[in-house]
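A common beginner's mistake is to predict each chain separately and then try to dock the pieces by hand. The better habit, illustrated here, is to supply every component at once so that their relative placement is modeled jointly.
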Amino acid sequence: MELEQILPEDIEKRSFEIIARELGDRTFPPEQFPVIRRVIHTTADFDYADNLVFSDNGVYLALEALREGVPIVTDTNMGKAGINKNALKKYKNEVYCFMSDPDVARKAKEEGTTRAWASMDKAAALGRDCVFAIGNAPTALIRLYELTMRGILNPRLIIGVPVGFVNVIQAKERIMTMDVPWIVGKGRKGGSNVAASICNALLYQLKDDEK
Amino acid sequence: MELEQILPEDIEKRSFEIIARELGDRTFPPEQFPVIRRVIHTTADFDYADNLVFSDNGVYLALEALREGVPIVTDTNMGKAGINKNALKKYKNEVYCFMSDPDVARKAKEEGTTRAWASMDKAAALGRDCVFAIGNAPTALIRLYELTMRGILNPRLIIGVPVGFVNVIQAKERIMTMDVPWIVGKGRKGGSNVAASICNALLYQLKDDEK
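With all components supplied together, the output reads:
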């Protein structure tokens, strides 16, 4: 196959055209489509056209939170690395990942739990409303569920896209019962790359805000 | 669905059992299987059982290179973040990503190319043999091909798993013609997470070396 001659700045546009063409006459709510399209762009996996589900007004409420400058908390440094730092500047959103923190590792060991679990406790200790972007650890989602139910956390959005084979589907189902904004990738699939691309798809929607 | 009660340290083992079960009676070369299994573990996508292809002795030659302490060069900071830092310690392998370097951005702009392309030139300037883990940019693979053909680079392994819709398949096909060790994910799929998980699967195979 010959290489296609294309300018670097046109690659994303061309990719989006191909994705739109392959989605055919399927339609999506207009505020959800940029998220779905970007996840397919990130994974080349059209399963996400079916897997991604959104709470009522989830995208609008998430954008509102980001406009208020709430921080994003991830469950992997990889997810943190994948969020576009320029796109965070407009509303001064910060990104935190506590997974590598020594106190988180110590607490997880003491309590016989996962670092992801302990890192959600550390996020709660920030005392701030946050967007949570969970692409790896179902235990992070389970802990978010518990902390929210107890009134300790008020998540402005939960992105629930951990990947895997053990307790992943169960954790996602739990998030989908919650009365907070959520975006969930049903089934086993997901990943830190998916979590980051959902964050980016939301942040890019703020680009044209007058500000 | 009820949550499965499982100790954190048993989750990976249980996941691997599920993957093995679902692969049924398919068999893989023993040195390739840990790579294929880990990529499926990372993505929950069994397509990789078919997509991942290896040059002759690719895994053995890659392990040899890693044992010599060659560095790993990635095309995203996300890929770099996903490589297990503890697993790098045994043979003191370093990981480089030049994508965010100002000189790379400047050179890409001047030459009308991509930062990924320019970052491979910067890797060549290290003057060292490297393992390349490319999970994002087909232009990085195309540049690696050119630099190797001109004798400027001697890659000890090319992991070619960029994801996407434009020139991705072509770039991977080019790598598969090369006379250096390679591991390629055929088709459109791949990603920084896949590139990192292939690195980790190789590094974990060195764990039991007597050293």
